[in-house]
Amino acid sequence: EAAEKGGYPHFMIKEIKEQPEAIRTTVAPRVRAGLPCLEECGITLEKLREFKSISVVACGTAMHAGLVGKYIIESIARVPVTVDIASEFRYRNPIVGEGDLVIIISQSGETADSLAAMRLAKQKGATTLAIVNAKGSSIAREADMLIYTLAGPEISVASTKAYITQLSVMYLFAFELALAKETVSEAECKRLVSALLKMPEAVKYVIETTEEKCKYVATKLITTDSLLYIGRGLDYALSMEGSLKLKEVSYIHSESYAAGELKHGTISLIEDGMPVISVATQSDLIAKTISNIVEVKSRGAMNILVCSEACARTLEDGIADYVIKVPQTDELLMPISAVVPLQILAYYTAVNKGNDPDKPRNLAKSVTVE
Ligand code: G6P
C-alpha cells in the first residue's frame, strides 16, 4: 500500500495532487477543432436540441457536482435543470418522461439509489446519460448515453479527483448543449473550451500556492465543534462540497448555507470564535457575500475566505481573518480551482485531529445497498 501511495502519507492528498492530470485526461480527448465533441459518448447536437428539461440525479459528492452543473447549464444553455438526491428521486414519482434528459453522476457506477433512479427514469421514458468513473459498472452499462470521467481509480473514501472530473464533464456537456440550443456562438464556445483546457495548469498552481496556507488555517479548526460554509450562486454550490468534505474526514459538524439565507435563522448559531468559511469568486455577487462576512464578523465569527484575486482586491483590511486566494480564471470555471483549497483544508484538519482521511469512520466508498 505504501508503494501505491507514491510517497504520500494518504491517498486523499495523493489524489488531490493528481487532479491536474485527471482533468487533462478527461477533457482533452473530448475536444475537436476547439469545440466539445461527445459523439463517442452517443451525444450529438441534433439529440441535444430535443431536450426541454434536465434532471440530475446522484448521491453525495456526485450530487454536488450536479449542483454546480445546474448553475452552468442554466446560465449558458438556458435549459431548466433540477438536481435530486437519488434516494429522494426514486420514491417521489418524479415528473420525467419522453423529451427529458436524466443525468446520473456516479464515481463507482454502483450506488444502489443512483442505479434504481436511473432505471426508474428509463422506465418512465426519459433518456439517460451517465457520467461515471468506474469502467463497465452497472450504471455505465445500462445508461442510454455515457461519458466516462477519466480520473483513474479513486481509493480515498472522500472523493476529490472524481469530483473535479465530474465538474469538467459538466462543463463540456453544458458547452455542447449551449451550442445545440444556440445560446452561445461558436466563437464563444471555443473561448470557453480553451479556458477549460487551461484549468489543469490553474489547479496545479492552486495546489502549489495554497497548500501551506490551508495547512496553517487547518490548525485553527481542530478545536471547533461546529462551523459554517457560505456562498452565493456557483460559490454556494461549491461550498456544499467543501462542507461535506470537511465533515466526512474531520468529524466536525458543518453546514453550508446560501449566504443570503443566513439571516433567516442560521446566523443565530454564530458565537465568538465560530469559524465561517466563505467562498467568493463571482464578481456580480462578491459585494453581497462580503456584506454577509461583515455581518458574521460583528457577531464574533472567525472568517476564513476562499476567493478569487478580483474579490481579494475589493476586500477591506481586517474583515477576513484568513484569506486563501485562487488565481482568476474565467468566472464560470472558478469552481474547478476554488474547490482545491477546500479539499486541502479538509484533509489537513483530519490529519491534525489524528483521523485517517482515507477511511473515515462509518463511511464506505461505494454504497451498494439502500
Ligand atoms: C458514498 C461515498 C461518497 C460518494 C457517494 C456517491 O457515500 O463515500 O464519496 O460521493 O457514495 O457515490 P458514487 O460512487 O455514486 O459517486
Compile the SSE list and pairings.
Layout: H1 11-17, H2 19-27, E1 31-32, E2 35-36, H3 45-50, E3 53-58, H4 60-77, E4 81-85, H5 86-89, E5 100-106, H6 112-123, E6 127-132, H7 138-142, E7 145-148, H8 161-180, H9 186-197, H10 199-219, E8 226-231, H11 234-250, E9 253-258, E10 275-280, H12 283-297, E11 302-308, H13 309-314, E12 322-326, H14 334-352
Parallel strand pairs: 3-4, 3-5, 5-6, 6-7, 8-9, 8-10, 10-11, 11-12
Antiparallel strand pairs: 1-2
Bound molecules: 6-O-phosphono-alpha-D-glucopyranose.
EC number: 2.6.1.16
GO molecular function: glutamine-fructose-6-phosphate transaminase (isomerizing) activity
Main location: cytoplasm
